[in-house]
Amino acid sequence: MMLSYFTALGLLAGAALAVNPVVMKGADFVDSTTNNRVMVIGVDYQPGGQSGYDPGSGVDPLSNGTVCLRDAALMQDLGLNTIRVYNVDPDLNHDQCASIFNEVGIYMIVDVNSPLGGESIDRSNPSGSYTASYLNRTFAVVEAFKGYPNTMAFFAGNEIINDVPTSKANPPYIRAVQRDLKNYIAKHSSRSIPVGYSAADVREVLQDTWAYLQCAIDGNDKDVSRSDFFGLNSYSWCGDQATFQSAGYDALVSMFSATTIPVFFSEYGCNTPSPRVFNEVQALYGPQMTTLSGGLVYEFTQETSNFGLINVNDNGTASLLVDYDNLQSQMSKLNVTLLQSSNASQTQAQPPACSSGVVSSSQFGANFTLPSTPSGAQDLINNGLSNPQQGKVVQVSSTQVPMSVYATNGSQIEGLAIKPLQGNQANTPNQAGTSGGSASNTPAPKHSGATGLASHMPGVFLVGLFSCIIVLVL
Ligand SMILES: *[C@@H]1O[C@H](CO)[C@@H](O)[C@H](O)[C@H]1NC(C)=O
Ligand SMILES: *[C@@H]1O[C@H](CO)[C@@H](O)[C@H](O)[C@H]1NC(C)=O
Ligand SMILES: *[C@@H]1O[C@H](CO)[C@@H](O)[C@H](O)[C@H]1NC(C)=O
Ligand SMILES: *[C@@H]1O[C@H](CO)[C@@H](O)[C@H](O)[C@H]1NC(C)=O
Ligand SMILES: *[C@@H]1O[C@H](CO)[C@@H](O)[C@H](O)[C@H]1NC(C)=O
Ligand SMILES: *[C@@H]1O[C@H](CO)[C@@H](O)[C@H](O)[C@H]1NC(C)=O
Ligand SMILES: *[C@@H]1O[C@H](CO)[C@@H](O)[C@H](O)[C@H]1NC(C)=O
After folding, report:
1. According to the UniProt entry, where is the signal peptide (predicted)?
2. CATH number of domain containing 155
3. Which one is catalytic: 103, 119, 159, 280?
4. Per the domain annotation, does 19 fall within a domain?
5. 237 contact partners, CB below 8 Å, separation of at least 6
6. Probe target for ligand 3 pocket from 67, 404, 405, with the most ligand atoms within 8 Å of CB
């Protein structure tokens, strides 16, 4: 009896809060319930750095709920609504971390690859690395993350083209992996989850890469090999003197003005000079750049490459860096009402039909005859993985951050905690002058029947309600 009581309670409370899944409409990400446009206001999250990924260790960036609690509290304070996570181990349990981010209204964009051999397309040997065993790993990542409502999207590839020579043979492999992932998701996920690509800023072939990936083969808009969105890793805005023109943001806006899929910065934040002032935030979310859907700052934790917002100290505490304060001050100047009220496209845009004419560089291999799915991988698509690790939202056991976090002036931050959001909303930047205002400027929840009611109520209230029912039954 007690067991089933707690099980039921856990299920109910666990379902108490969930962000509305994101869908694509035309060139926008859109909240599937409110139809508001969703701008990506995010950060790249890879504590331990790329070299920190070690599948034998039992640890990845989303495996330790205590660490995620600390980082989610800080990201909520920064006003972020999205993280990108590279290098996850699909065999680990990510329930606590994913649920914590879900409760504070932070979406996750997950890379299905890792830098280890056999776990990504090798850009110098695409045909040799496009194997059933590689795809097996990518499907395992889908299985691990498809059950979380805040899984916003998957990156099928990152910088598989990283110079002009690699734009020759590699493009069809990007589309092939997208096709396989989307076929897997269509068959084995209860909701559709967008799949796209994260591009290096190789200006000679950037427009070609986007054009090659967004078009529909045979003009068929059901073509699953096309990208659902296009991420650009962009480091061209350097220092507080940079401008919309000098950073070339004007060129990007004009390059992507006819996009039929969302385009956003999958990494941004040039770090010379340092500390960063992040005044590109005002340009990125301003009226001149509504073509783009926002971006992700590279990156949350300080690693050897020096892009961090916080430093994780050896004794398990963390210290905010000046970049953290500077980013927060820029975020607090954004007009969230304006960002959310900008009209989202309400229809799918018709993608252009693929033809060699969509690209302009003679060096770019615009081959639309894709490599066929390895037969072992086609079996996995048809039948699903056997006994995969599948994530699910769970009750978050604690809101208080247990470890010390120090502000930039060295003093310890008191009472650091996550503030679960009501009403299935994404987190938003605090307006200037307020602190922890995310919950207070959240619109009133919309109710939609019995399940909707349960899903909009705070867990604490439900626990009380449910206890009463149990007592009555007993
Ligand atoms: C997929 O991975 C599982 C678990 O690691 C393994 O048992 C299976 O043989 C793999 N299948 C293929 C086709 O690589
Ligand atoms: C942990 O390390 C940081 C950085 O070295 C230091 O500032 C802080 O005082 C230490 N905290 C504890 C509790 O030892
Ligand atoms: C999670 O991280 C905390 C803080 O670094 C550490 O004390 C704890 O041992 C970790 N938990 C696990 C299960 O690794
Ligand atoms: C933010 O944008 C909204 C909608 O356009 C507008 O009504 C409001 O005045 C703006 N707020 C500020 C502080 O500019
Ligand atoms: C949104 O679309 C409506 C109807 O097309 C239009 O009247 C309104 O001005 C638009 N609002 C914005 C902020 O573009
Ligand atoms: C295009 O890719 C297909 C499949 O990998 C291959 O058979 C064909 O030779 C390629 N075409 C060109 C022109 O490279
Ligand atoms: C240090 O910074 C924190 C956070 O900005 C602030 O609340 C606190 O008052 C500051 N402490 C001192 C001694 O300046």
Report:
1. 1-18
2. 3.20.20.80
3. 159
4. yes
5. 247, 249, 268, 270, 280, 283
6. 67
Read off the pLDDT of residues 29-75 as tens digits, 9 standing for 90 and up: 999 998 889 999 999 999 988 877 898 899 999 999 999 999 999 99
Parallel, antiparallel, or unpaired: how do β-strands 151-158 and 405-406 relate?
A: unpaired
Euclidean distance between CA atoms 119 and 138, whole angstroms: 8
Degrees to nearest 5, angle at CA 258 with 41 and 121: 65
Residue 89 carries which side chain, given as an amino acid letter? D
> What's the number of CA atoms in the CB half-sphere (13 Å) around residue 115?
10
- Residue 183 near residue 222, CB atoms below 8 Å: no
| Number of domains present in the structure of the chain | 1
Stretch (H or E) spanning 319: strand 318-320
Q: How confident is the model at residue 15 (pLDDT cuts 50, 70, 90)?
A: very low
Catalytic: 204? no
CA distances (Å), origin 19, targets 115, 306, 375, 445 = 30, 32, 37, 12
* 464 domain residue, yes or no: no
Q: 394 in a domain, yes or no?
A: no
Q: Residue 432 falls within a domain, yes or no?
A: no
Active site residue 267: yes
Bridge partners of 24, per DSSP, are: 29
pLDDT for 471 equals 36
Ligand nearest to the CA of 405: 2
Q: Which two tokens stand for residue 254?
A: 């004009």
Q: Look at residue 52 in the predicted model and tell me its pLDDT.
A: 78
* C-alpha of residue 338 to centroid of ligand 5, in Å: 12
Q: How far is the CA of 334 from the centre of ligand 4 (A)?
A: 10
Distance 403 CA to ligand 7 centre (A): 18
Q: Of ligand 1's atoms, which has the minimum distance to the CA of residue 131?
A: 14
